[in-house]
Amino acid sequence: MRAALIAVALVAAVADVAASPGQDLNEARTFFRAKDCAKAAGLLSLLLNPSEQLAQRSDLVEARSMLGACYFELGRREDAREEFERVLQLQPDKTLSELSYSAGAIRLFDDTKAEIEARAKRDAELKRIAEAREKLEAYRKSLVVYENRPYWVNFVPFGAGQFQEQRRGRGVLFAVGEGLTGGVSAGIFLYLATNYGLVAKVPLAEAPRVRRLQQVEIVSGGAFLGLYLVGVVEAIWHHQAHARVEGDDSLVPRDLLDVDKPKPSPKTSLRDRIHFGPMITPSGVGIGIGWEN
Question: Where would I find the beta strands (DSSP E) of the chain?
């Protein structure tokens, strides 16, 4: 007999424990409707933290909505916002009824919902841009471009052959060297031709100076020719008719390049909004003025 009573007591205790979350939720509803947020928040917090004791999603949504509203009424706005975020994670289209919730709580809930939606759009846009950039980089790496390099460029002075082979250091060296020596020789030639004519008629007193200038002209001209010949030979030695180079963005599809460019801003100035055009009326022809919002 005693064993039977113990078994009945245990079954009753188990049944009471199993029913307690639902009973606590009903009791929290009663306190919430009575606007006793302190007691309602205490019961709801025990039901939801540290682990959720409610199995039904609808009960979880209702409990967290009430707990968030209670936190708001108790002045705990950040805690209220966190609860509202959990509600919207469970049910993104959730709304609060004006019959059960205060205007302030509804406003905070709606603001939280708008922030979550804006954050989701921003994250989606950032993800789209990141994926597009990865696609752009992959496309750039996949480009194989070969450049045709004409042979005759090797005979152009001032390091043209070196620049064509992308050897800019050597190109600058020959360009500067040939420019200086050729410039000096040409400058002296023009000076002597201007002052003394092509067939030089030099006064005896100026002959030594002119002779020195002619010597500098010849030496610098010879240096120019020497540098030019060395540059030609050096360019021919390294010449490649076809060379693989990195492709530039002109080969990339426009939709990949424009993926993260800002959209054009709306027209705001008076000049952008006003449009002029011909206007035909039954009585004649004139100019019409249009306004764009």
Answer: 145-148, 242-245, 274-281, 284-291
pLDDT in tens, 107-157: 999 999 999 999 999 999 899 888 888 887 777 777 666 778 888 988 999
What does DSSP say about strands 242-245 and 284-291: parallel, antiparallel, or unpaired? unpaired
All structural domains of the chain with their residue ranges? 2-122, 151-245
Number of Cβ atoms within 10 Å of the Cβ of 171: 20
Beta pairing, strands 284-291 & 274-281: antiparallel
Architecture (CATH level 2) of domain 2-122: Alpha Horseshoe (1.25)
Residue 8 pLDDT more than 50? Answer: no
CA distance 67 to 162: 76
The predicted model scores a pTM of 0.48
Between CA 252 and CA 264 the distance in angstroms is 22
E strand or H helix at 148, and its extent? strand 145-148
Tell me the CB-side half-sphere exposure of residue 87, using CA atoms within 13 A: 25
Rounded Cα–Cα distance for residues 210 and 183 (Å): 18
